[in-house]
Amino acid sequence: MTTLTTPHDTTSAPAGPHRPGGHAPVPADPVARGTLTVPASVVAKIAAQAAWELDAVGAASGGVLGLGARRDFERRPTADAEIFGTAAVITLDVGVAYPAPLRRTADRIRTHVTDRVQRLTGLTAEQVDVEISWLHPAPVRGTRGALL
Fold first, then answer.
1. DSSP symbol at 67
2. SS3 label, residue 38
3. 18, 82, 90, 95: which could form a disulfide with 134 (CB 3.0–4.6 Å)?
4. What residue spans carry the Polar residues bias annotation (predicted)?
5. Using one digit for the tens of pLDDT, what is the confidence trace for 4-34?
């Protein structure tokens, strides 16, 4: 878990129970205004959601010890995150539709996850490891390979 202070350019706060009659000045120092605490589990969920936002990225579901597992594009991939100060290290386990250029697909996932984590948490995703654990072949077109 990490605690971040985020800059905020508002110079006054809304009236509240301790601010009768209007606005009170907000301290200019971000530390004096408060903190934002982001647990690693939240960063992992954001990363999994961000990967799932891309086309043809999914997760394995069901099964015991790999038996009976299905490829599922209706579920978010699994993710793990560790936080070191303001840096996050993220590991994603995804499945992708095949055929697709795997290196380019992993780079696209990595870039999107990095951007979303930065935008939503303020953390820098210093490392995003993408493990492609399964491929889902595209349906066969035409009659080649079809049963007659």
1. B
2. strand
3. 95
4. 1-12
5. 554 444 444 454 455 555 666 766 776 677 8
CA separation, residue 15 to residues 8, 29, 105 (Å): 17, 20, 49
Q: Collect all residues with Cβ–Cβ distance below 8 Å to 102 and sequence separation of at least 6.
A: 96, 132
Q: Give CA–CA dist 8/10, Å, rounded.
A: 6
| Spatial contact of 75 and 85, defined as CB atoms under 8 Å apart | no
Whole-angstrom CA distances from 135 to 30, 64, 76 are 46, 19, 15
- The phi, psi pair for 68, rounded to 5°, reads 80, 5
pTM for the predicted model, two decimal places:
0.70
Q: Give buried/exposed letters for 70-109 (b at 16+ CB in 10 A, else e).
A: ebeeebbbbbbbebeeeebbbbbbbbbbeebeeeebbebb
Domains of the chain in sequence order: 39-137 (3.30.70.1350)
